[in-house]
Amino acid sequence: MKNELSVRVADWQKDNAELRRIREAVFINEQSVPPELEWDSDDQEATHFLACTGDYPIGTARLLADGHIGRVAVLKDWRGSGIGAMLMKAAIEKAEQAGLTRQYLTAQVHATAFYERLGFRVVSEEFLEAGIPHVDMVRHSN
Fold first, then answer.
1. Looking at the DSSP assignment, which residues form a beta bridge with residue 136?
2. How confident is the model at residue 12 (pLDDT cuts 50, 70, 90)?
3. What is the domain range of residue 16?
4. What is the number of domains present in the chain?
5. Which residue among 43, 51, 63, 137 is least enclosed by CB atoms within 10 Å?
């Protein structure tokens, strides 16, 4: 039986171990982002999201109060299953509920097409962040 995929708002304190496990697996272990760049003070204030298959968390994202969406991470075995889009849609919906008609993010260049499908547009030249090529992207809600 296939487990249901779902996304929920996470609690930074209560869900901390799962949020950290996913981000460490993707950003620190897979992409070699230094831990001191991965963890920041924004985590305390952000709205976090957890994507799960059944009860097992497999993806995360966060939304800052200014409409910045970031730390979008899906465990390797689950990529291509629609989880990333589910996380992004949850973050966009939460931003819009908060009256944030402009959402923005810093995307890894290889992922720009994914974000474009969600309505984001590239608004910068390519630049390196943690040694990985990125671009800034913006989305405006209707």
1. 106
2. very high
3. 5-140
4. 1
5. 43
